[in-house]
Amino acid sequence: MPWLLLVRPAGNVWIVMATCLLAIPSGVWLGWRLHGKLDQQQIYRACYGLLVATALKLLWDGVSGYLA
Length: 68
What we know:
88% of the residues lie in helices and 0% in strands. The protein is an all-alpha fold. The relative contact order is 0.05. The model has no long low-confidence stretch (mean pLDDT 85).
C-alpha cells in the first residue's frame, strides 16, 4: 500500500489489484490442500526442483548477458 501514496495508479492497475485480491486466498487454500495430500519427500523434491530450475535460469541469463 505505501506505493499508492507515491504514484496514482491508472484504471487498469485497480482491476489487476482486485483480481489479485481474489486470487491470493484461493491460492493459499489450494496450497494448504495440496500440502495435506503430499508427503514430505514429494514436497522436498518439488521445492528442490524449483530451486534448480530457477538457478539454471539465472545462470543462463547471467551468461547470455555477459556474452552479448
